[in-house]
Amino acid sequence: MKDEYDFSGATRGKFYRPSSRVRLPYHRGSQSWFDDVAVTGRWWQPEFWRDPEYLASSPWSRERLESAFGVLPKLYSETEAKAAFSWVLEKTTVERTRLIDRPLWRLLACPMRPDLSALLRLGLDAVDADALGQSQLVRRLRADVSHELNSALFELRCLAAFRNAGIDVTYQPSSGAGSHPDFRLRLPGDRFVCINAKHAEEGAWANEEQTWFWRLSMAQAGHFERTERPISAHVRLTERFQELQDTEDGRSFLRANIDRIATALADAKLRLASSGGPFPAVEIVDGLAEVKVMGPPGDVSGGSSMAVPTDSRREVARVVRGAVARSAMQIPQDETGLVLLDPGMHAPSHLLVEEVRRWMGAEGAAYAHLVGVLVMAEVLFEPAPGVLGHADQIVAVWRDNTPSWVKDGPWQDLSDALAARDMEVLARRYAEVGGDRENGTVPRSATG
Predict the structure, then answer these.
(1) Is residue 87 a contact partner of residue 31, using CB atoms and an 8 Å limit?
(2) Taking the alpha carbons of 151, 152, 157, 163 in that order, is the dihedral positive or negative?
(3) Eight-state DSSP code of residue 324
(4) How does pLDDT run across 16-59, given as a tens digit for each residue?
(5) What's the DSSP call for residue 172?
């Protein structure tokens, strides 16, 4: 006979664990919850989206939340969840490390509030796109590999936006051998455009730089116990660090010495905090990282970390020569083609536009059927003091000979649809400070 654990309110749901006890406190994200999900696969229990506080903080209605979380357990059933959370039960260190590095369990265990929840947005997009009716997309959304999952999530977002914008779209249309566009749009006049939606993964250099930054900003001294009082400090990487980061010899030096620098930085932070002042106390480690300690160890940690810029032009060139060129090859040459590009964090849109134009006139000239690139660019909004929000807009880059029927296509409507979730979040924040959410005081679109 199986044990049954019943919870109510925020943790409504049933858990069945043979001959076991719940380890308290029990809540989503606790060790007992991870244990339960690894055994049962029921990641959706407790039904946290029905919690009154979750509902109250959501920019979306109860009905939309119910529809989103009605689809998600079908998309990620017990079978997929057991595989994703298998690291919880794994005893071998090497295998556990490999399994825990996969992305799907992090998505299903997403702890964020509604407006920041990637899981909820996935559910909303899945409903709007009728994702369960797209077997190829479902298969890729279940892929527990970062680049495949990220690509599928972007395609899902685009498919939902096409449908919300009222655009006649076919997902994964039939095409010639070797040519596999993601979408085919029917435009007025019975004309067609093939679109490849491309999510550009961060380049190896950018990922490495981010790893170095986090290694230094989060470093702790080897003898510093987590139970001790926290230290308020600011960490800044110097111009010398950037000089090393921008050359291959310098990067080789950083790879070989980053652990030593991190340890020295953490030791300096602890030593300065324990020195008795005066504060702020500053020390620069190897001319590469500055730590400024604001006072002795206290009850609340604080401070900041400042990295050095990634080489944006190098990252932009990588994105265009890689993601855009590959997309062009996937579109049949007898079709009119576009690329809808999510460039990632380290490729500024103004540099992307410049590089796309250069590429079209140079090596991209061989892909004359690719008539434009629709670049996703982040726009910031502040409709009232202290009320900040962001949304993506489309910046279109066209060839000089692009037909007017393509340029005049539904790209503004698509841009609005892609921005809709973020604009709903911003409207909610604005309403909370007394703005008029219903009468459109917040701009309707990301291009407004």
Answers:
(1) no
(2) positive
(3) I
(4) 444 455 454 567 888 889 999 999 999 999 999 999 999 999 99
(5) S
